[in-house]
Amino acid sequence: MAFGIPSNAKPLFLLSIIKGIEEGIIIGNKFSYEEKLETIYKELCSFYEPNRKPAPFYKPFYHSTKEHYYNIKWKGGKIPDHTWHTPSPKFIKENIEYAFLDDGLWDLLQDKYIRNEFCELIISHYLKTANI
After folding, report:
1. How do beta strands 70-74 and 96-101 pair?
2. Which of 126, 113, 128 shows the shortest CA–CA distance to 22?
3. Helix (H) or strand (E) segment spanning residue 122
4. pLDDT of residue 64
5. 83: pLDDT strictly greater than 80
6. N or C: which end of the chain has fewer CB within 10 A?
7. Who's near 18: CB < 8 A, 6+ residues apart?
8. Sequential DSSP letters for 75-104
9. What does the pLDDT read at residue 132?
10. How far is CA 36 from the centre of its chain?
11. Residues paired with residue 100 on neighbouring β-strands, in sequence order
12. Cα(132)–Cα(130) distance, rounded to whole angstroms?
C-alpha cells in the first residue's frame, strides 16, 4: 500500500461477503475464515485495483469489527488476551467460531435487488476510479 492512499480492503471485503451470499457460499448469517471467501476477495481486489497489492484477507476480516454492521463470535465468548494490532490468520482460524453481519443488514442482503444496489453504491463510492 502506498503511503497516504487509503485502503479499500473493507469495502472489497464487504463486496466479497455480498458475492458469497449471491453465490451460495455464505448461507445463514455465519461465515468462517475460509478459502472460498478469501478467493472472492482476491479476485475483487485484482479486478478493482489491479495495480495495487491488496491487503491480506485476514486484515479486513478482523478489522471490519470496527464497523457497526460486522462482528466476530470468539470461542469462549470473548477475544483472547493479545498484544497485537492484527492477529495472524492462524490465530483467527483457531479462535473464532464465526463472523456475522448485523441482523438488519443480513436481512436486507437476502434480496437480490438490494444486494445489487449495495454493490453499486460501494463501487461508485469507493472503487469507481480504482480500475480506470
Report:
1. antiparallel
2. 113
3. helix 112-122
4. 96
5. no
6. C
7. 109, 115, 118, 119
8. GGGSPPP---SS--HHHHHHHEEEEEE-HH
9. 42
10. 12
11. 71
12. 6
pLDDT digits (tens, 9 = 90+) for 85-106: 888 999 999 999 999 999 999 9
Rounded Cα–Cα distance for residues 10 and 122 (Å): 10
Cβ atoms of residues 76 and 55 within 8 Å: no
92 grid coordinates:
483467527
Instruction: Count Cβ atoms within 10 A of the Cβ of residue 90 and give its class: 0-12 exposed, 13-18 middle, 19 or more buried.
Output: exposed
Could you please report the per-residue DSSP string of 2-46?
-TTPPP-HHHHHHHHHHHHHHTTSS-SS-B-S-HHHHHHHHHHHH
Nearest to 67 by CA among 9, 3, 6: 9
Three cell numbers, residue 112: 437480490
Around Cβ 70, how many Cβ atoms within 10 Å?
Answer: 20
pLDDT band at 1 (very low <50, low <70, confident <90, very high): very low
Distance, CA of 65 to CA of 47 (rounded, Å): 25
Cell matching residue 58: 485476514
